[in-house]
Design brief:
Low-confidence stretches of chain B: none
Strand content of chain A: over 45%
Number of helices of chain B: 0
Largest sheet of chain A: 7 strands, mixed
Distance between the termini of chain B: 37 Å
Largest interface: A-B, 24 and 23 residues
Order of helices and strands of chain A: EEEEEEEEEEE
Number of strands of chain A: 11
Mean pLDDT of chain B: 89
Distance between the termini of chain A: 37 Å
Structural class of chain A: mainly beta
Low-confidence stretches of chain A: none
Number of strands of chain B: 11
Helix content of chain B: under 10%
Structural class of chain B: mainly beta
Strand content of chain B: over 45%
Order of helices and strands of chain B: EEEEEEEEEEE
Radius of gyration of chain A: 13 Å
Shape of chain A: globular
Oligomer: heterodimer
Radius of gyration of chain B: 13 Å
Shape of chain B: globular
């Protein structure tokens, strides 16, 4: 049973380019969370999605960042016009169902984004 | 809203014990514990759902005091493989908040 998959594992972009990060949840999981981790810091919640729905995006910057989880295919976190401050590790996590307080999240290996 | 952990960092010799504390200024309905090794993804350790609940996983166990809004992670007879950063976390609505983290280093 494959775990959560993320690609690419490493991504280098120049300032102003777009970054697309992909996350395939574990089989049977329909809930996806995205987190950002700056160097030497903890993980910060960005967005929570179910299939075809954004449930909570309050942790995501309102400009340049967007996320989707289509009916078919992986969840995508998109960062437009990247800046150096976007350099970080981006992790996604998936779970089977969302009940208040009881979700167990399983994390993917992360995408390390470097903006030159 | 971010849970606060203490200590921030701890160094142990193999075989020693450690306690990591997690406290929240908001009501805690559940506490999740993760371990993250450098450059890797967080790995789920355990979840505590009820006040007073205690759980164990080999030599790693945890307790949850709902009234005090605190949880503690206990590592006994530490092994080199226990090194990493430990995070507690909790849901507030749809958002999951990780704690401030505790860096644990086990040396021979």
């Amino acid at each position: 049973n494959a775990g959560v998959m993320q690609n690419p594992r490493h991504l280098v972009r120049r300032r102003g380019q777009e970054a697309r990060l992909r996350c395939s949840p574990m089989k049977g999981h329909s809930h996806v969370y995205w987190y950002r981790q700056l160097p030497e810091e903890g993980l910060k919640f960005m967005v929570y999605l179910q299939k075809e729905n954004i449930i909570d995006e309050s942790g995501m910057p309102k400009e340049r960042f967007s996320a989707e989880f289509p009916k078919e295919g992986p969840s995508i976190l998109r960062i437009q016009q990247v800046v150096r401050g976007d350099s970080a590790a981006y992790f996604c996590a998936s779970s089977t169902k969302h009940q208040a307080s009881t979700d167990t999240q399983y994390f993917g290996p992360g995408t390390r984004l470097t903006v030159l | 809203q971010q849970p606060v952990q203490s200590p921030q960092a701890v160094i142990l010799r193999e075989g020693e014990d450690a306690v990591i504390n997690c406290s929240s200024s908001k009501a805690l309905y559940s506490v999740h514990w993760y371990r993250q090794k450098h450059g890797e993804a967080p790995v789920f350790l355990m979840i505590l759902l009820k006040g007073g609940e205690q759980k164990g996983h080999e030599k790693i166990s945890a307790s949850f005091n709902e009234k005090k809004q605190q949880s503690s992670l206990y590592l006994t007879a530490s092994q080199l493989s226990y090194s990493g950063t430990y995070f507690c976390g909790t849901f507030t609505g749809n958002q999951f908040y990780f704690g401030t983290g505790t860096s644990l280093t086990v040396i021979p």
